[in-house]
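Quick one:
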Amino acid sequence: MKFAMGSQTLGQLTKQTQTSGEDLASLVRQLGDAAEPLEGRFNGTARAAFDQFKVNTDQIAVELSGALQAVLAGVAGMDRSFVESESEMADQTRSSQGSVSFDAARFSTGA
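Output:
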């Protein structure tokens, strides 16, 4: 299995996740607003569950946003580690390459 990731992949993922999170929170609020015509039409436990949803719609949106922010913090950490590791690997390669003699790899006819 080959894994190839460009240097911008995690940054793009962060942007897309942040946008999707904002959209999700907005959709939860819209769902709460769209359910208003149903208010008062339920009885018993269904009514209690509906009322609870209506009361907690904003809290649900906030908690979803918070969870996604935690995911984004993790992605940012991965991005930082990836960039630092890539830079460190390039530095080590240049350092090693500077101390290697490539003369043995030359094919010449010394006539």
